[in-house]
Amino acid sequence: KNKNMSILDDAVFLLQPTSVKASKIYSTFPTDGTGDFTFTRNAIKNRIAKNGLITKVQANVPSLSYKPISGVSDGCPHIAIEKESTNLITYSDDFSQWTSVGNAVVTNNFITSPDGTKNAAKIVFDGTANARIEIQITSTGEVTQSIYLRTETGTQSVKIGTTSADLSTVTVTTEWQRFTHTSSSGTFPRVLCSDSNTIYISKAQAENKSFATSNIDSSGAATTRITDGPFTSDFASESVTFPANTSTLVLWFSYNGKNGDFFKLLRFEDSAGGNSLRLETYSNNIINIYGDNISASGLITNGFTLNPETLCKIAISYNSTETNVFINGSSVTINAPTGVLNIINKIYNNTTSMNNINIHRAAVFNTVKSDSNLKDLTS
Fold it and tell me: What is the pTM of this model?
């Protein structure tokens, strides 16, 4: 880790998300502010705070999230960039509005929820087979239900899903956990328990996606969270000199899931010439780098895959005669560029056909780094 940090001291641009304000994401380098990102989102959004609670961020404030990635929450946040999504459940926390089946008894506002306030409900099941609470939604196609559950004591098997023919059995404990289930269709999100037990419930959500996005509160109607972005960092300045045909790019990223393509989601550009490298993914969730002087099949031979909520560390280093790519500490085979890759002095996204991405670190060097450095920067 110390070796990694000493290499980063040589970067001409470095983003390690630690500080944000309205319309701004601060970078570490350059220190004159030219590398800071501008950002827009004209609406409130929920995020996971450092203390693990769901908290709100105000309009145009970037979502600095501490959601665990790769099963780890080490106190290091990431910038969570998400596409628009709608919570189809009209009452995310008022479970008295849900239908009770089989003697399931609901008491609202009984216990502190994952947002730190006393707005989670208690459900008492008496052992009736297939007892449940459910609510009807308007949904077309694939739908993902997500919900926070915990027990009063011990553990309990509970089923969730949006149709009786396709349910997931989850193990609920005395700690709040967010559970998800995806079906090809369904219009009745439910929580089902055939045993005699008490379950606490909070933050119900259903989205026409293959994965769950950040929490969207609803109270009486389906509710939409708008798209994050665009965001732009142009770190070209008189104090930064970029040698011709020489650059190293480092990106640590993850995503929550994928619908459609990452179409030009994150671009690394020569802001003077307009040439760019682009992180994109197409069919079968294959991720690759595309752009000027790269073949249509992408820079990385056969591309690579990434499981949702898993950290990927990638580095690309090149000059006029050599290009090297490392992923998670190992060199990968590439398709030889058809020309020299562009010199990066701008990073940005656009919102056309975007999906979601979590940015954990981004760095640019104006020197070609050795294989040893690339291994350290992606380990």
Answer: 0.93
C-alpha to C-alpha distance for 237 and 244, rounded to whole angstroms: 15
**Distance from C-alpha of 110 to C-alpha of 130, rounded to nearest angstrom:** 23
Long-range contacts of 21-27 (CB under 8 A, 24+ apart): 21/61, 22/58, 22/59, 22/60, 22/61, 23/60, 24/62, 25/62, 25/79, 25/231, 25/233, 27/233, 27/235
Q: What is the pLDDT of residues 133-143, one digit of tens each?
A: 999 999 999 99
The strand pairing partners of 365, in sequence order, are 248
Phi and psi at residue 89, to the nearest 5°: -75, 125
Integer-rounded Cα Rg, in Å, for the chain is: 23
pLDDT tens per residue across span 190-219: 999 999 999 999 999 999 999 999 999 999
The rounded distance, in Å, linking the Cα atoms of 115 and 216 is 12
| Residue 296, C-beta contacts closer than 8 angstroms, at least 6 positions apart | none
pLDDT for residue 350 is more than 90: no
Distance (Å, whole) CA 364 – CA 92: 42
DSSP letter string, 30-66: STTSTTPEEE---S-EEEE-TTS-EEEE-TT---EE-
